[in-house]
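Same chain as my last thread, 201 residues:
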Amino acid sequence: MSKGWYVKVETNLILRVDTNIGVLASSSEQAMEEASAIIRKQIDHAGVDASPIPWDFTIGDMEWRRSGEPYVDEYYIEAIHAEPDSDFDPEETSKSDLMDASMCLLEVFWNLPEDDLRKSDFLPNHGISVVRDRMAVAANLCHQTWSVMVQRDEYDDCFDLDFCPRFFENCMDDQMVLKSGEVHELMKMWKGEKNELHSCY
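reply #2:
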């Protein structure tokens, strides 16, 4: 004999959302990779705010109730398009900032231990003028890398005492030549995320 039933039916409501991010990269592929990484980092740090999604809503003639908190499936985080935007280009370094960066890097050099080969071997064989030239060449990208990290990562440690020594060690080779000409790559090296074996000059 048939009788009435009250049945609870559950289904998955899948939403696709998107956002736009400005990043610094040397190619569209690299830009999309960087943007996806930023999203993952944001979600890991802040989680997902479910407040804009109502608990009760209607689909067709049926009333539905959300039964749990939403989550983001990281496997489906995908950058789908990238185009150049000069608004996110590194700002041109002023002459005073270039001089400041150059002097800070030179100070790092003078603070090296006496038995460091850059000081005990490179200096007597090439002279201080070459050392100064190397610091001057590196100054622009050093300052640009710091500037981007301040804007993007909210880096707030001291430029001369904290940033420059690490830039000198991680981003310049044993001949004091930059390992890359790309700010994006230098940022990774500074953070210890990538090691380059060859310089770019």
